[in-house]
C-alpha cells in the first residue's frame, strides 16, 4: 500500500455522518465515594488560577451558552472540567451521568495498554521453518505466527520480507502457513451489527495487514464511453476486481465499490460513472478475511524481494520442532497508541483490547470478553471509578458502552500522574486545528487543545487537555447524546465549548 500511514488511517476510519438521534437513559449513577479520584469539588467562592470570581463566572456562562446551542436541543449531557494541577472542579453538568462515549472510549483502551506493556514494548511476528536453511536458501514451508500487532502495513511487510532475504531465504518450495491463534477468530464485535464493508469496520485478528483495509482509485479514461481506470492498493490477486465503471459525460451515477466474499478471494465490484477529466476518486473498504489478506500482502512483498513462493497461502501451525528464522518486531506501543488516538482507528483499538488480555494470559486465545475484563482491571487498579459504567468494546463503536465525564477525566488524570503513561497519551491526542481528527475542528483553540473526539449517530463527545488564556491547564470531558439538530451543527457546538475553554473572557 503506497499511501503513508496517517493518510491511510484518516480515510480508513472516516465514518460518514448520518441523520438521526437517540434518546438516552442513564444506567445507574456513580456513588459519591467514587468521586474521590483526586478531584476536589470547587467551592462556590474559591478562585482558581489567575481568574477573578467575576471572570470565572463569565467563563462558566460561556460554556453554558455553548451547550444551549439549538443544535443540541433535547440532548443529555455529561460534562466536567478540572484544574490539571489541583483537580479543583471548575465546571460540571451532570458529570456522573453515564452516556454513550463513542470514540472517547479509546482513551480507556490507550491507558490500559500503556499500563499493561509500557511505551517501548513491541509486538512480535514470528517466522519459522521446519528445517534450517541450507546454502541454497530454500525451505519447504514458511510458518508465520501473528503476535497481535495491529500496525503492520504493506511497508512493514516489505521490511519483514527484506529481513528474511537478509537471513538467506531465497525460495519457499511450498506454502505460506499462517497462524493467528493468539486471538479468537471473532472478527467483529456482535454489538456492531450490521457490519458493513466500510473501512472503519476493519476486521480484528492477530495477524493482519493495512488495518484490514484496502484502497480503490477510480480515474476517468481519456474519452467518454470507455471503462474507467481502476487501481487497487495493494495490488494483490486476492482482491479480484470486476470493473463495471464507465467514463461518461455529465456523470450522475456515483462511483461505488462493493466487497463480496468468495472462496479463496474477495470480489471487488466497481460500478457507476465518472466524468472525463474528473479527479481520481479514492474509496476505502475493509476486507472480509484479515488472515488471507495478510498472507496475500506477505506473498506480494516476498516476491518483491526476489523470494519465490511456489505453493498456496493457508491456515495452520508450525511443528513443535520448527526453527525460528525471524522474530519481526513492529512499532513500539507508544507509536501504535499515537495512531489509535490521532486517527481513531477502530481496528487498532480492538486489537489492543485483545493484546491486554494476552498480557495477563497468553496461554489461551484472547477474546473481547477476556480483553475488556483485563482493561477494566487495569483501569480500576489505576484508580478509575467504574461503578455504573459499562465497557463493551475498546473502540467505542458499540452503542452499548456507557461512560461518564467523571470516568474520562479520572482516566486522563490517572495517566497524567504516571510518567510511563502520561507523556505518551498527551502526545498521541489530536491537536486542534493541526492534526488527526481535530485537524479541521475547534480552529480558534489552535494548539491550545489536545483531545480525543467521538462521533456516532446522535452522539458527539470530546475529552482531553486544554490550556486556558490565563495559562492554567485543564482536563475536561464532554459527552452529548440524543441531540435533535443536525450532526455537523452539533459537532460545531461542541467545538465552541472546547474553544471557550481556552479563549479569554471579556467583561
Q: Terminal Cα separation, in Å?
A: 54 Å
Instruction: Describe the main β-sheet briefly.
Output: 5 strands, antiparallel
Structural class: alpha/beta
How many β-strand runs?
21
Strand content: 15-25%
- Helix count from the secondary structure assignment: 11
Low-confidence stretches: 17-48
Order of strands, main sheet, comes to: 2-1-21-20-19
> From the alpha-carbon coordinates, what is the Rg to the nearest angstrom?
25 Å
The best one-word shape is globular
Q: Roughly how much helix do the residues carry, as a percent range?
A: 25-40%
Mean pLDDT level? 91
Describe the overall structure.
By secondary structure, this protein is α/β, with parallel strands linked by helices. The protein has a domain at 216-284. It contains eleven helices and 21 strands. It has helices at 5-12, 53-67, 105-117, 154-166, 290-304, 333-343, 346-360, 368-381, 405-416, 422-428, 487-502; strands at residues 76-83, 89-93, 122-129, 138-139, 142-145, 171-172, 176-179, 213-219, 229-233, 239-243, 246-247, 256-262, 265-271, 273-274, 281-286, 308-309, 313-315, 323-332, 449-456, 459-467, 473-481. It has a five-stranded antiparallel β-sheet with strand order 2-1-21-20-19, with helices on both faces. Strands 17-7-5-3-18 form a five-stranded mixed β-sheet. Strands 4-6-16 form a three-stranded parallel β-sheet, with helices on one face. α3 (105-117) runs parallel beside α7 and α6 (333-343) packs parallel to α10 (422-428).
Amino acid at each position: 500500500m503506497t499511501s503513508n500511514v496517517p493518510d491511510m488511517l484518516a480515510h480508513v476510519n472516516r465514518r460518514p455522518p448520518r441523520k438521526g438521534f437517540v434518546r438516552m437513559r442513564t444506567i445507574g449513577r456513580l456513588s459519591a465515594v467514587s468521586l474521590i479520584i483526586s478531584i476536589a469539588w470547587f467551592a462556590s467562592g474559591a478562585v482558581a488560577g489567575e481568574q477573578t470570581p467575576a471572570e470565572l463566572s463569565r467563563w462558566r456562562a460561556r460554556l453554558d451558552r455553548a451547550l444551549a446551542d439549538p443544535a443540541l436541543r433535547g440532548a443529555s449531557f455529561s460534562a466536567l472540567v478540572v484544574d490539571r494541577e489541583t483537580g479543583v472542579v471548575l465546571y460540571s453538568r451532570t458529570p456522573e451521568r453515564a452516556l454513550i462515549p463513542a470514540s472517547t472510549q479509546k482513551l480507556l483502551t490507550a491507558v490500559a495498554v500503556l499500563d499493561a506493556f509500557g511505551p517501548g514494548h513491541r509486538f512480535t511476528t514470528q517466522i519459522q521453518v521446519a528445517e534450517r536453511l541450507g546454502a541454497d536458501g530454500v525451505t519447504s514451508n514458511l510458518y508465520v505466527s501473528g503476535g497481535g500487532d495491529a500496525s503492520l502495513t504493506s511497508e512493514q511487510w516489505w521490511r519483514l520480507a527484506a529481513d528474511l532475504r537478509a537471513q538467506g531465504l531465497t525460495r519457499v518450495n511450498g506454502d505460506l502457513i499462517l497462524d493467528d491463534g493468539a486471538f479468537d477468530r471473532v472478527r467483529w464485535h456482535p454489538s456492531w451489527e450490521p457490519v458493513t464493508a466500510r473501512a472503519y469496520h476493519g476486521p480484528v485478528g492477530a495477524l493482519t495487514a493495512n488495518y484490514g483495509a484496502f484502497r480503490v482509485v477510480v480515474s476517468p479514461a481519456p474519452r467518454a464511453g470507455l471503462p474507467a481506470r481502476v487501481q487497487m492498493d495493494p495490488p494483490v490477486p486476492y482482491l479480484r476486481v470486476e470493473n463495471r465503471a464507465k467514463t461518461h459525460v455529465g456523470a450522475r451515477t456515483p462511483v461505488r465499490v462493493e466487497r463480496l466474499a468468495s472462496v479463496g478471494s474477495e470480489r471487488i465490484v466497481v460500478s457507476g460513472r465518472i466524468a472525463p477529466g474528473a479527479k481520481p476518486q479514492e474509496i476505502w473498504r475493509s476486507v472480509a478475511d484479515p488472515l488471507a489478506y495478510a498472507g496475500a500482502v506477505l506473498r506480494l512483498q516476498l516476491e518483491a524481494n526476489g523470494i519465490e513462493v511456489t505453493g498456496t497461502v493457508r491456515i495452520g501451525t508450525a511443528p513443535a520442532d520448527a526453527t525460528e528464522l525471524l522474530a519481526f518486531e513492529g512499532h513500539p506501543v507508544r507509536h501504535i497508541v499515537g495512531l489509535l488516538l490521532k486517527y481513531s482507528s477502530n481496528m487498532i483499538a480492538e486489537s489492543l483490547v485483545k493484546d491486554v488480555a494476552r498480557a495477563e494470559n497468553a496461554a489461551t486465545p484472547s477474546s473481547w470478553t477476556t480483553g475488556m475484563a483485563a482493561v477494566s482491571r487495569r483501569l480500576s487498579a489505576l484508580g478509575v471509578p467504574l461503578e455504573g459504567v459499562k465497557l463493551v468494546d475498546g473502540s467505542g463503536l458499540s452503542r452499548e458502552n456507557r461512560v461518564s465525564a467523571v470516568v474520562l477525566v479520572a482516566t486522563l488524570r490517572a495517566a497524567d500522574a504516571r510518567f510511563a503513561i502520561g507523556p505518551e497519551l498527551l502526545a498521541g491526542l489530536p491537536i486542534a486545528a493541526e492534526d488527526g481528527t481535530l485537524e479541521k475542528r475547534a480552529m480558534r483553540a489552535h494548539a491550545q487543545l489536545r483531545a480525543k473526539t467521538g462521533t456516532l449517530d446522535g452522539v458527539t463527545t470530546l475529552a482531553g487537555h486544554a490550556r486556558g488564556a490565563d495559562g492554567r491547564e485543564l482536563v475536561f470531558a464532554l459527552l452529548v447524546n440524543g441531540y435533535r439538530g443536525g450532526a455537523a451543527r452539533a459537532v460545531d457546538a461542541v467545538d465552541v465549548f472546547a474553544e471557550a475553554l481556552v479563549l479569554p473572557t471579556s467583561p
